[in-house]
Write a structure and sequence with these properties.
By secondary structure, this protein is α/β, with parallel strands linked by helices. The protein is built from 14 helices and seven strands. The structure holds S-adenosylmethionine (SAM).
Length: 331
């Protein structure tokens, strides 16, 4: 692919909504926690003044290499190879304690899914890897060598909402034991033959949910979300924005609950007339419902179909104190 097309490899999802949600101050400091191919970062840079700054993070070395090319062209931009669970340390080291906006566009990028050798896709035969960061962690093949059937079934059920999780887990471990599980095609085939015949050709491919679940497990994605969002909230300035794009209901539920606990932290029993727990809100929702792509975006980029975005704003301590006692009960 020629240089001009480098960042066209991934079409940014909900791009304009994401930027509108995050952007409040042209002179502000922003963080893109999931650089990918920089679709969102480039749009943010287009709106920033000479004084504005953008830090991007990605755990994928190819994404970071693309970010380094952008950093060489634009002095307002910096990229760091890290996972966003360590966002707090990264921002502390840089002294970024009052950030104007922090965004997450979760999951994998098109270049990751489209390269067979990364092992994310059941449509292409590749190794059983699935790591976003090839410089650390264990590939799927190694993790499968140390997991029990019960744990594996739980993972496939919990992260994939897969109703046939037990049958699939059993078949995966049997094939591994028999030396018949070596590639993503083998895994796809096992998932396909583990579900009842009538479920093989209706709806999404029978491997979709299992591949999603295993990817979440390999990359500890839920733990990353917990730590990343907490660090983001801790480093936002009052009025600073948090925008999170996710791609499936389990992820969205987790994000909604994490932010809800900061919007409504009061733990007093509902019958208490006033709040006595002393927990004050630190965030407010900017949209009650998640933002979803319109038909035109879905038609232009089918991968955006399942995306949804949550947006919240950091509030000051004084505002939080004013709201305390109402949050979680009256609101
Ligand atoms: C959906 S893509 C982002 C695409 C990007 N917004 C764009 O427009 O090009 C997700 C990116 O986030 C990275 N990523 C996912 N989880 C991460 C984590 N916990 N820490 C750092 N990077 C992560 C992936 O490696 C991938 O490059």
């Amino acid at each position: 692919m020629g240089d001009d097309n480098r960042y066209a490899e991934h079409i940014p999802v909900l791009r304009d909504d994401f930027i509108e949600a995050l952007f409040t101050d042209p002179d502000g400091c922003y963080v893109d926690c999931t650089f990918g191919r920089g679709g969102h970062s480039r749009e943010l840079l287009a709106r920033l003044s000479e004084k504005g700054r953008l830090l991007a993070i990605d755990r994928d070395l190819e994404a970071v290499a693309e970010g380094e090319r952008l950093a060489a062209e634009d002095a307002r931009f910096t990229i760091v190879h890290a996972d966003f669970a360590s966002l707090g340390e990264t921002l502390d080291e840089l002294g970024w304690l009052q950030v104007s906006g922090i965004g997450f566009d979760l999951g994998v990028s098109s270049p990751q899914v489209d390269s067979a050798e990364r092992g994310f896709s059941f449509q292409k035969s590749g190794p059983l890897d699935m790591r976003m960061d090839l410089s650390s962690g264990q590939p799927l093949s190694v993790k499968l060598a140390h997991v029990s059937e019960r744990e594996l079934a739980d993972i496939i059920y919990r992260y994939g909402d897969e109703r046939y999780s037990r049958r699939i887990a059993k078949a995966i471990l049997r094939a591994r034991h028999d030396g018949e599980l070596n590639t993503t095609s083998d895994l796809e085939n096992i998932c396909f033959h583990s579900v009842p015949k009538q479920a093989r050709h209706s709806g999404a491919h029978p491997a979709t949910r299992t591949f999603q679940a295993l990817r979440i497990w390999v990359n500890a994605e839920m733990e990353q979300i917990d730590a990343g969002i907490q660090a983001a909230v801790d480093h936002l300035a009052p009025g600073g924005r948090l925008a999170v794009i996710s791609f499936h209901s389990g992820e969205d539920r987790r994000i909604r609950n994490l932010i809800d606990a900061l919007v409504h932290p009061c733990t007093c029993p509902p019958q208490m007339p006033v709040c006595v727990c002393g927990k004050t809100p630190s965030m407010r929702w900017l949209q009650k419902k998640p933002v979803r792509p319109g038909e035109a975006e879905i038609a232009a980029n089918p991968r955006s179909r399942s995306s949804l975005m949550r947006v919240a704003e950091r509030i000051s301590e004084a505002e939080g104190k004013k709201l305390a006692g109402y949050s979680g009960r009256v609101q």
